[in-house]
Amino acid sequence: MCKEAEGQLARLAMPHARLQVELLPCRDGIPAGDRLLGPDGADRVRFLLAANPGESREPLRQVASGGEVARIMLALRGALAVRRSTPTLVFDEIDAGIGGRTAQRVGQVLAELARHHQVLCITHLPQIASMAASHYGVSKSLKKDRTSTEVRLLDKQERVDEIARMLGGVKITETTRKHAAELLANV
What we know:
Blueprint: H1 2-11, E1 18-25, E2 30-32, E3 35-37, E4 43-50, E5 58-59, H2 60-63, H3 66-83, E6 88-92, H4 100-113, E7 118-122, H5 126-129, E8 136-143, E9 146-153, H6 156-168, H7 174-185
Helix pairs in contact: 1-3, 3-4, 6-7
């Protein structure tokens, strides 16, 4: 699994990343033969990462940035999905801490996963959103002192407008619309 994930990480702008899964015995629990059995089993799992050459593998939670964690999760989910029949993969804000070229690579990997799985991805990056087969808009509104959320499939023009909004912010111009259309055309 780690080798497969490392291959994915190379494609996600982490070409030198090395992962390791470490199984450690449970520290607290009830005796079960010659081991302790805790509420989550007899083993603790720890992921170790060396993100760059010359670094030793250290606990992922201590050394990985937000962007690295997002890409590692994508790589691990992809590696596990290949081994298991996982029909649906959900990525919530997989774009944390990334941008530009890396965002485009993440979008490409998600699109490849989507060939064999249903992929639901919540993103704020146009490079990722533009690679989706379907694009839903999510909006919130206040109705009678209650927040209501609406999820709606966007048509072709609405999708261009949404990608343009992601690119340009509050003011959408013809230039941002053209850029959005170009992103969508290059998929």
